[in-house]
Write a structure and sequence with these properties.
With about 180 residues, this protein is of the alpha+beta class. Helix content is about 35%, strand content about 30%.
């Protein structure tokens, strides 16, 4: 993946802003294990923004937004569908891995990551997209399949005709 590398802490300290787009096909870790993407889908763009922020108390944050539309397999009907994945997240940058697990900072539920001088923007966007992917992808409402429903109704009618009332069977025996 061609990538832009930034000094993450310097980016946040300066309150910088980046935005861009990259073809979905470049996000190979996100697509690993998913359906093979058609060419049109692989060439569709992932749009993203990244904004740095710092506070008076010396804390640094990155705010990331991203949107991607990979083709996933619905786990209810097993049909492919385009899944809209949206990311809108804010993470805190820390200087060392020890700070990452430190309880000294306010625990306000914000994820902490180590900011490096060679911070991969697209790698970070891809990480956030992977975290936002549905664990069980599915349609909001699966499309109906008239062919399957027609088969089901024909089958149930056949079962109804086969199933006879036990009294009518007894009546048949009595006549014979």
């Amino acid at each position: 993946m061609s990538d832009s590398l930034i000094d993450a802490l310097g980016f946040a300290r300066a309150g910088s802003f980046l935005q861009g787009q990259a073809p979905l096909g470049l996000f190979t870790r996100m697509l690993d294990g998913q359906l093979a993407q058609p060419d049109a889908q692989r060439e569709s763009f992932v749009n993203w923004t990244l904004e740095g922020e710092n506070t008076a108390s010396g804390r640094y944050f990155l705010h990331v937004t991203a949107h991607a539309e990979p083709m996933l397999e619905c786990q209810r009907c097993l049909r492919p569908f385009i899944c809209n994945i949206n990311v809108d997240n804010r993470v805190e940058l820390v200087r060392t891995p020890a700070e990452q697990d430190s309880d000294d900072l306010d625990d306000d539920g914000i994820e902490r990551i180590v900011g490096s001088k060679r911070f991969s923007v697209l790698g970070f966007v891809e990480d956030e997209l992977i975290l936002a992917m549905p664990y069980v992808p599915k349609h909001h409402e699966c499309p109906s399949d008239n062919g399957i429903q027609a088969d089901r109704s024909a089958s149930s009618q056949e079962q109804e005709t086969r199933r006879q009332s036990p009294f009518s069977v007894l009546e048949q025996l009595k006549k014979n």
